[in-house]
Amino acid sequence: MWKDPLGQSAAATLANARQEERLAAAKELQEQHAATTKRIAKLEAAQKLAEEEKKAEVAGVRAELEVAFSNDKAKADDLARQSKDYLQEIVILRDRNEELESEMAKVARVGKREEIDFAEEVRSWPGIWIGEKLPRNGDYLMAFADTAGNALEPRMVVDNKDKAAVAEADIRKLVRDARERKLAVAALVTHDESQLR
Question: How would you class 18 by CB atoms within 10 Å of its CB: exposed for 0-12, middle for 13-18, buried for 19 or more?
Answer without folding.
Answer: exposed
